[in-house]
Amino acid sequence: MSLIPDISELLARARADLRMGLPVVLTGEEGESVLAVAAETLSPARLADLRVLGTPVIAVTGRRAETLKARAYDGDLARILIPDFADLSWLQAVADPSDDLDRPMKGPLTTERQGSAALHRLAIALTKSARLLPASVVVAVTDGRGLAATHGLTCIDHARAAPHLGERSPLREVAAARLPMEVSEAGRLHVFRPEDGGEEHYAVEIGRPDRDKPVLARLHSACFTGDLMGSLKCDCGPQLRGALAQMGEEGSGVLLYLNQEGRGIGLANKMRAYFLQDQGFDTVEANHRLGFEDDERDFRLGSDILKSLGFKAVRLLTNNPAKIAMMERTGIAVTERVPLKVGQTAHNRGYLATKAAKSGHML
Length: 363
Ligand SMILES: Nc1nc2c(ncn2[C@@H]2O[C@H](COP(=O)(O)OP(=O)(O)OP(=O)(O)O)[C@@H](O)[C@H]2O)c(=O)[nH]1
Ligand SMILES: [Zn+2]
Description:
Layout: H1 7-20, E1 24-27, E2 33-38, H2 44-53, E3 57-61, H3 62-68, E4 77-81, H4 88-95, H5 118-129, E5 135-141, H6 144-151, E6 155-157, H7 158-165, E7 171-178, E8 187-194, E9 201-206, E10 215-221, H8 224-228, H9 236-250, E11 253-258, H10 261-264, H11 267-278, H12 283-290, H13 300-308, E12 313-317, H14 321-329, E13 333-338, H15 349-359
Parallel strand pairs: 1-6, 10-11, 10-12, 12-13
Antiparallel strand pairs: 1-2, 2-5, 3-4, 3-5, 7-8, 8-9, 9-11
């Protein structure tokens, strides 16, 4: 029946639940099931409830485990045993590196090596896509489906969810209108919304670019601090304005504004990363200490939008080779890379050097 939510709708619901601090039920292939809550949003009352149901563990990514010196027997993640004395602040200190330097001794931490980590991996993937810290408190339960039905919890089946996790929900254009701008009076803004109701993304068209010729294009990732606040820590604001100005001069172009704040980790996590940067870690190390990869963005969104606007080839304004490679892989030809070198400041010199050294950016 069409009234029943499908798996991508259930996943979207699970992300919203985790952000509220609600547990979700995850069920596995062998009939096993767990209850999972994001460490960041867990309340003391719910922690007590989880302890009534069983013996919870806290699952963190391999990246975070490295910093915590916890053995990651599962490779990309570690299931850390929670000592009886541990309270919510202990769990949050495992999840959140903010006070790593003040409280370096969380351990020694013992990690689980028996049994499957598949549901823990799913729990972490969900917290990440909910833009929360990638850490989940997980407890095994006997009848997950029954528990979900009785308590009105979202229930996700691992086998059904797996093919959808690395996938993005299809985008649909929901509205477009004329937008006269400083750089060009012939501006037009298109709003794209994913079918699962997630984050919207925008395309700003300048002029009426010919769909049969390579269009001057920029894939810009949202940066509240740089785009709007004039932050000196990165080069995003000048890049955004520089790209629009160039399109205005040429009288034609398309700028995609992708809501992938903080290279896909969200603004709260980006500010946690900035806090770590103030302690001396670089932009890549800070992401790793938080449990994230260097870059969690999905640039395929960009080619989805370009294709839906009818473009086949771009002259891409970027210094990031990963953007070019992804465009080519997903069927948008990059006929030219147009460098975008603006906004270097004394504050962002180290940031730009790290991107060049560790993320392959062209200086
Ligand atoms: N996690 C994290 N994100 C950051 C940091 N500084 C800036 N960002 C984010 O990095 C992204 C930069 O986006 P872009 O300028 O589109 O991408 P880029 O990879 O630098 O590539 P080009 O500018 O095209 O060369 C934005 O989402 C910013 O919010 C940081 O220190 N940590
Ligand atoms: Zn920025």
